[in-house]
Design brief:
Chain lengths: ~300, ~300
């Protein structure tokens, strides 16, 4: 989850790519908008307001997917701002849901094995949103800025408060002279789910990966200009924890598309890999008879023990 | 349920009218078509085939409505043969579902308190379908006939076999020189649900209401040219069984629209009233703590006893 332009699609596209289309159901909660763009303008409501979305149906559909049931998912098209024919979404091993209000109420929140919130600094989010909305959605810069101003109260009231429900909060930040593919990444890992132990991966602390341990959370900082070699070592170490999912290994993580060019971002790759770690261990916990990642049951504990062994 | 042109909408419109929009959710299973008209033509499949419909989603939505949950219902438009934006359907006291394949599998069938199947003679159905499809859906007579020929195998394989799962089978028939509003009606009432005892209502047997009692079913015949006075007496007697729902009484039952004219059909009114009897007693059974009409539980038995008392 995260505000409009926070980088959700960039993160999830890489995860979808690595898991494979046949393994993952991916969609946006934007599909659950109650009104089309014209209706929203008439009513004077932003898409960030819960009343502008079928919140109970979103919750129902997340629950059905969690139970392994299919859904007939509505489809909202961003280019026209209207609804298309609904699509049948069958149950698959993984579901990745991105959007604005997916952690709004408890019923929804309980459906996720992992809750990730994207919280870039506002100036970076504006830049990303401008880039995307002017190129892919046909808006002018002034229109995007005006829309952001109109949305700010709802963003403050409904979107940003969801951060507190996240297990992982990700903030990309522009360092000095940083390119889009060399942004620093900060991950806040909370103890609300079993987090991977990254401490053996800490580098020199200069420009690499650093960890600040708190009581029930830790901050992991990955420098945007981390040496490719050091990033590879870190990624290798996380992949080793995922030995039981080694078939997923590929070089597709960390891709950032800017215009027509695809760049590799080491910090993005590490962030995606940490999320992938959670997806894969949660799935293994379910396969071992547990009810998921968040539940503290035997299945989950067994996987944790397994993961802990690998960490030695 | 019933084949295309069997008169489903004429029956349900009267029931919706009498129950009131705020009390009843009414929709067609046509909304659950998997393909639009163009796609069906490309694939070469008729809308009568289960594969041309989201059967599992229809079943899921019927179950959700039965549980009092809302659904986001797809919308198929017959004029254009395409899908519109889905609509939010909240839970209401009554749900009336009409369509082609609603009794196709057991999961669906269990969702209904009453299952009605419309089985007019094929020549009458053709006449009705021609009337409707040429006036409201813009087809020529040849097109309607060609479509019927193409659909016949699926109709025989998937639609007509559903008749056996109905609690009430309704057949309107054209008598000698009968007008559209003076058709004979035959109702087959099966003992699969507690049926109203209509025996005190039998008239002379000449041109009125007659009942043939079988072991686990009875045939009720209502003459299309039944005297208005006799029909009123019968309706009055059924309304008396529904004393606890007397607020529903109005003169809106039995309306048939032909072209721009609205006619009153006494036989249609009696058929609608028998269905209404089931809807209302099933609702009362649920209100008394039972699980519905079909379930043989205490709540249901209590209503039956109550109804029986009234019948004396």
């Amino acid at each position: 989850m995260g505000d409009s332009g926070a980088g959700k699609t960039t993160i999830t596209a890489g995860l979808e790519g690595i898991l494979g289309e046949d393994q993952v159901t991916a969609f946006s909660t934007d599909d659950y908008h109650r009104y089309d763009r014209e209706q929203r303008a008439e009513i004077g409501i932003t898409p960030l307001h819960p009343d502008a979305n079928y919140m109970d149906i979103l919750s129902q559909h997340l629950t059905l997917l969690r139970q392994g049931e299919p859904i007939l998912k509505p489809v909202y098209g961003h280019s026209g701002g209207t609804f298309g024919p609904p699509v049948y979404v069958g149950s698959k091993p993984f579901a990745i849901v991105e959007g604005l209000l997916g952690y709004h109420d408890e019923g929804m929140r309980d459906c996720y094995d992992l809750r990730v919130y994207l919280a870039p600094p506002e100036e970076l989010r504006l830049k990303w949103k401008l880039q995307r909305d002017s190129s892919k959605r046909g808006y002018t810069e002034d229109e995007v800025q005006a829309e952001l101003d109109k949305r700010e109260p709802d963003s403050a009231q409904f979107i940003r408060p969801q951060e507190r429900h996240a297990d992982v909060v990700v903030s990309f930040k522009e360092g000095e002279g940083a390119e889009a593919h060399s942004l620093d990444a900060e991950m806040l890992l909370r103890d609300t789910v079993p987090q991977p132990d990254l401490s053996p991966l800490i580098g020199s602390g200069e420009r690499g990966i650093t960890i600040d341990e708190g009581d029930s959370e830790r901050h992991v900082n990955i420098a945007g200009d981390i040496e490719s070699e050091q990033a590879s070592e870190i990624e290798e170490a996380i992949w080793e924890k995922l030995h039981f999912a080694s078939h997923l290994r590929s070089e597709r993580l960390g891709e950032v598309t800017i215009g027509d060019d695809v760049h590799r971002s080491e910090s993005l790759a590490v962030v995606q890999l940490v999320i992938l770690y959670h997806l894969v261990t949660a799935k293994a916990a379910v396969a071992l008879g547990g009810s998921g990642h968040r539940a503290e049951d035997e299945g989950s504990a067994a996987v944790q023990e397994d993961a802990a062994t690998v960490e030695q």
